[in-house]
Fold:
Amino acid sequence: MAPFTKSVPVRFEDCDPAGIGFYPRILMMVNRLIEDFFAEALDHPWPRLHGCEKRAVPTVRLEVDFKGPLRQGDALELELQVLKVGNSAFTVAVAGSVGGAERFAVIQVLAYTTAGPEVAAKPMPDALKAGLARFMVN
Structure:
């Protein structure tokens, strides 16, 4: 299956004039992409996940490689693929590119957990696992 993709503008707040992307802003873009992925590709929006179901998908591992500059006005293409789906965790790869040139790469492991004062891993529902599997890299 094709990856989940979004195009977002690089704004003044996302980088400095030298093209150095602010890593907290880059991670925020990645988080927004994952939130959109859940809503649009998995039909599992976070308000339902967090509110009705009292579940969450916190990050438990994160790797980021910065590979090139980001400049104000760039059209940043974000691409998400699922690398692994387990019983209560999954791994995604997110690439950020401008004009076909990769600017950063993220590997992120997220756990399916309870959302509350006592956070604990839980088995993912079969429908969520199946949805994630549709975006797995071969």
